[in-house]
Design brief:
26% strand, 5-stranded mixed β-sheet, 10 strands, 5-stranded parallel β-sheet, Rossmann fold, alpha/beta
């Protein structure tokens, strides 16, 4: 793969839990703008791989590089800052604060980065929520699961990241809300021009992605996308 087109690379990377290898990567390269579905049975390492790619899980060996940044060499604070600036995360749980409304939850990651959230980001958060059909001032406890996921999508897209990394983004949704979430993710990632990496068991989501990486427990990953 042309180095200019490469967004992120894991090389000779391992992660161990209780002395056992949970993830082994000889090489995994993801291109700018790639659409990658990570599949495999439960326990095959999907979530571990996503956490490794965004620096949430420290490597026991090897290197994680995003462009010129060697993320695996950064300290915890620097990794957090890197993630906040360059990656949008969507987890299985929505991680919304019940005491905050939809807008404040969409701005949550930005509020950790800025002493005062810039007006431009507040305006973008409001735009994204309106685009996704969620009222900005609506209390979180009154939102449906589908609406909560759309708030999480707005938060992930807020800073126009280089990549959106999503762990089972449709797992807790019914088929209608899952389809709406997939549509929103693909459209917004396309507008931003960012990569989209999703771990999923959802055939409808997987079918919409350009590439697939099927993990098998105990196997070493070597692939370019």
């Amino acid at each position: 793969m042309d180095a200019v087109a490469t967004l992120a690379t894991l090389t000779n990377a391992t992660i161990r839990f209780d002395g056992q290898i949970a993830l082994s990567v000889k090489r995994l390269a993801i291109a700018k703008g790639a659409r990658l579905a990570v599949t495999g049975e439960s326990g095959s390492g999907k979530s571990t791989l996503l956490n490794a790619l965004c620096g949430l899980e420290r490597l026991n060996g090897g290197e994680l590089r995003w462009g010129e940044t060697i993320v695996s060499e950064l300290g915890e604070f620097e990794r957090d800052r890197f993630r906040g600036e360059r990656i949008g995360l969507i987890m299985q749980e929505f991680y919304l604060y019940p005491d905050l409304n939809a807008l404040d939850n969409a701005l949550l990651s930005a509020s950790f980065r800025f002493w005062r959230v810039p007006a431009a980001l507040k305006a973008r958060a409001a735009y994204l929520l309106k685009r996704l059909g969620v009222k900005a001032d609506q209390a979180v406890h009154t939102l449906s699961r589908g609406e909560k996921q759309r708030v999480a999508i707005a938060r992930a897209c807020l800073s126009k990241p280089e990549a959106i990394i999503a762990d089972e983004p449709t797992a807790s949704l019914d088929s209608r809300n899952a389809a709406e979430a997939v549509k929103a993710l693909l459209e917004l990632a396309g507008e931003i021009g960012c990569a989209l990496v999703c771990a999923s068991h959802d055939p409808a989501l997987i079918a919409k992605m350009d590439h697939r990486l099927k993990l098998k427990k105990g196997e070493t990953i070597e692939a370019d996308f």
